[in-house]
Two pore channel protein 2
Amino acid sequence: GTGAGNDLYINQAIVFIEDAIQYRSINHRVDSKSLWLYRWYYSRTCQWILSLTITVILALAFVEEPSSLTITSDVRYRLPAWNPPCGLTESVELLCFLVFVVDVSVKSYLIGWKEFWKNKWLMAYILTLIVSLADWIVSLSFFCKESVRIRRILRPFFLLQNSSMMKKTLKSINSTLPEMASVLLLLAVHLSLFTMFAMLLFARTKDNQQDKEWVVYFRNLPDSLTSLLVLLTTANNPDVMIPAYSKNRAYSIFFILFTVLGNLFLMNLLTAIIYNQFRGYLLKSVQSSLFRRRLGIRAAFEVLSSLKETPASAQQSCVSVGALLQVLQKAEMDSRCKQAIMRSLKMCSCDQLSAAQFQKLFEELDKDAIKQHPPSPEYQSHFMQKMQFAFGHPYFGYLGNVVALANIISICVVLVMDADKQPSERDDFFLGAINCFFILYYLLEMLLKILAMGLKRYLSYPSNRFDGLLTVILLILEIATFAVYGFPHPGWRPEFMGLLSLWDMVRLVNMFIVFRFLRIIPNMKFMALVVTTLLDLVKNLRAFAGILVVVFYAFAITGIMLFKGAVVPLGNTSAANTTHDNGTLQCGTYEQLEYWPNNFDDFAEKNMISWCSAQAEIIYCLLYVFSVHLICRWAKIYFVAWWLISSVIWVNLFVALLLENFIHKWDRRCQRESLSDIEYQRTVELMFRDVLEEPTEEELMEKLHQHPHLHLCR
């Protein structure tokens, strides 16, 4: 009937608007049952369950064999880790797989059979599930004793396929690779040519004393390539040059030329190309997101214009204000946007909205989120007004910063004076007394600010919340210290009581005091700009962090499969793969640096190695010990591949995004005057808002007519 048809159109409009808000595709089924299933699938509860399932299956790597549940990863002191019995983690895995089966089934049904065959991500999802389930069955067949588990490497895919922004980011990275490959090829030519020069320059001679450069670094082609590749990271600089330089200082020209051309020119050229190309592809991705939003809004307009209450005499399609209000009441959207749209509708004098008016209403979704602080309380007393003026003035905040700086300086002085003292000689009276004084001042400052600003206004500022929280924590710690060890007095060195000693309590208090000093950041404009840029990256660029997790996870699992048990303490004669020629330990080697905790025996430690080698700090040592001492020369491929992906490609991508975010904020700071009571919150899409192109009506209608499940009247 007419009522049922109108309800269907209303529900379709609700879903299309929610799709537009979340930048989702509208190419899904639009019948009543499918719409209910669609809204259920994208409900907070359902998405929370899916996110929890992905987190659980990724976290299994910390628990399953080889378990990371040990205090230390040092092979010399590590106790045997607890490994779960066969079937425990596998049961959790099976539950996760069942959730993923439901997830892929619902997704496949909602988009329809024709769209399913066009969706490569869904097909890959199903293939990943099939391979994982097959590997799970094989694992149980071998009673969990098999050394290679393919499904572990595939787990990051579940995280990747669940985020549309991660998919777009991956697509942007993939599109950037051809331009990056040209510079990497040039880098490879540079490395190869200098390797040949090095082998000719440092060739073996009759004098063994003069052949240290050849023996250590350039003995053959693989060693020469490795030495210069590590020099490109500066991890072995100037060690690689010293033997030749001690022979003749003119040899330094070779190494200087290599470093200047490789590090200063080619690596920075790679950064510039990545910044230019990736920004372009990210802009295209955001442009497609804008198109999805406009398409969703236009689709909602078209289905609402099909309602029976629409006047038949209208020259063009229009939507009644009442129908839109009905949709807004049921749609899941930000309360700020909803209220702004409803205010605009109330101010509108007409009863019918055209397509342009309808689209303009929802431009509220594209605007900056503006947070206005509550007003200060209005006191009637003249004395209270003076108090409010004095303690609400910025100078009172500056005074607090000076006091915090004095606290930091006093802590530094005491630490320097007590640096060489034995614990039994240390007198904690002075440090305890000054901490007590400063914490009381911080408490008084917080209370006076609340008095001047009011509690709601005080808590509306992030800097005040940070300051107040740390002040409360410091007060609780100080009260706990006094309750356990009494008040400070000369010779204050009581016996150990409770969970922490007096010195531990004092140190903990001092750590929070040092951390609290970060309150000065909002008062320094340029520093605040840098910090807000970093915070924006954390909040808005989670997709990049997600892909980084995927890469870390895959390399960690692969590293465990390849190198588990390779690192063995010196003197362990049961180890077949280790050498025992350790009468003297060469400076800079794995053994001399005591890198024993850096091994591949569990998932947590492998991630720590990946982090350290991504900074190129230990890459030379790892290359040497795993390719020469422990495994074989082919192990170098693993470490070089990780260095290329993490240090060369990923770090440059992060630098490019950091530059883009900082430049954007700097430009906006120059254009927008500083308003103390307003905070602007930006998203990735809004970063590029000024340069995006609006889709035309013809493009939107053409796309709508191609919808596989929606059939428009016009």
Residues 252-304 form the longest helix (53 residues). The chain has 29 helices and four strands. The mean pLDDT is 80. The chain has four domains: 43-162, 179-367+683-713, 382-523, 534-570+586-676.
